Amino acid sequence: MMFEFELIHQSKKSKARVGRIHTPNGSFMTPAFVAVGTNGTLKSVDHVQISDLNLPLVFANTYHLLLHPGPEVVQKAGGLHQFSGRKGPIITDSGGFQVFSLAYGSVADEIKGKGRKKHGNSVLKINEEGVIFRSYRDGSAVHLTPESTVNVQKKLGADIIIPLDELPPYHMGERALVKALERTHRWEKRSLDTHLANPKNQAMYAVCHGGLSKELREKSARYLDSLPFNGFGIGGSLGKNTEDLCRVLDYTVGFLSPDRPRHLLGIGDTPSIDATVSYGIDTFDSSYPTKAARHAVALTANGPVRLRQTAHRESFVPIEKGCPCYTCKHYTRSWLHHLFKAHEASAHTLTTIHNLSYMMRHMNTIQQHILEDRI
Fold it and tell me: Where do the record's region annotations for RNA binding lie (predicted)?
C-alpha cells in the first residue's frame, strides 16, 4: 500500500477534521497522538508489550539511530519495523532538531532567551552543505547533509521521513531568521530530490518554518506547498505560550493544501492538543506521557495523579476508573505508589502503559467530537 491521506469529515465549526492516513505498515485515524520512541522504542516499554494499545504512529530519532546502532545495522536487520518489533507505522525525523539543540541550547533555554548564540562544543560547523557535529558516543565528526539524512532514513525504512531543516531559536533576529529559512528551503528541496530519486514506498513531509513572523510563515507554507511533499510538519520556534502557538498555526495552515496531512512537531500534551486541533492539525508528537510516567505522574480525565504522594499509600483503586489498560485492570494506585517509593523499574512501565492508553482514549474522544461538529 502506498501512502495516502483520506479526509473523512471536515467540521462545520472549525478547521478541525477527521481523516485516515494509509501507510505500507497500516492505517490510522486522525487526529492522532504520536508517541516518541527516540531509539526506536518507547521508554520503559517495548512494542510487543503495548501492541494491544494500537498506537497509530511512533516517532523515532534519526540522529540517535545514526550514532547507534547505525543505519547499516538496522538495514541488515530488515529495517526498523523488523528490528524493533513495531508492527504499525513509524515516522523518523532528520536529526535537525538535535543539531538545533546542540547549537543553541535546549528548547526550554531558547524559549527563555538563554540559548547559546554560538555553536556548542558538539556542533563544529553549520553551512550550506549541512552540519558537522561531534558524536556524543565516540567524539568522531559526523557530516549531516540533506542528502545523507535521507539516505540514512532510507536504510531505517520508516513509513514517513522528514527532510533536513535548521531550527532557529526563538531569540534569533529577523535578518538571521530569513537567512535560516531560505537555507532550510534549499535543504528541503535537496532532500526531496534525493527522496524522489528512490522513494522506496516512503512518504516525505516538508517542515514549515518562519518563527513567529506572519510573512515568513506564509512564505514557507506557500513554497513548500508548491512541491510534491506527501504532507507537512509545522516546526521551528513556535512561541513562548499557547497563544503564540495558535497564532503560528493561524498564519500557516490556510496556505497548506487540505488534501495532505499536517503534523505539529514536538507538541503533544493534552492542553496543547485541545487548543490547536481546531486549526486542522492531524497528528501531534510528544514524549509528554512517557516522561510524565517516569516522574510518577499518571494522566486521567480528572487531571494528573501524582503516585508518589502519601495520599495513595492506601488507595486500593485503579489509576482511573473504567480505564481498560493492563495496569488499571491488574493494579491499584497503592501498589504503584509502593513501586515508585521502592524505586522499582516496573513502576515506570506500568504508568507508561496507562498514560499511553489515556492518550489513545483522549484522541478517540476528540475524533468523535469533530464528527459531531462540536470542535
Answer: 266-272, 290-294
Report the pLDDT value the prediction gives residue 119, as an integer from 0 to 100: 42
- Binding-site annotation, residues: 93-97, 165, 236, 323, 325, 328, 354
Q: Which of 159, 269, 282, 285 is catalytic?
A: 285
Express each pLDDT in 308-327 by its tens digit. Answer: 999 999 999 999 999 999 99
Q: Which residues are annotated as a binding site for substrate?
A: 93-97, 165, 236
Choice among 93, 159, 269, 282 that is catalytic: 93
Which residues sit in the known binding site for Zn(2+)? 323, 325, 328, 354
285 given a catalytic annotation:
yes
DSSP state of 336: H
CA pair distance 188, 320, nearest whole angstrom: 44
Average pLDDT of the chain is: 93
Q: pLDDT value at position 121? A: 59
**pLDDT above 60: residue 64:** yes
Q: By the 8 A CB rule, do 366 and 277 touch?
A: yes
With CA atoms as reference, report the closest residue to 50 among 210, 290, 234: 290
Amino acid 105: pLDDT:
57
- Assess whether 93 carries a catalytic annotation: yes
Phi, psi of 310, rounded to the nearest 5 degrees: -60, -25
CATH homologous superfamily, domain 4-286: Queuine tRNA-ribosyltransferase-like (3.20.20.105)
CATH 3.20.20.105 domain extents, the chain: 4-286
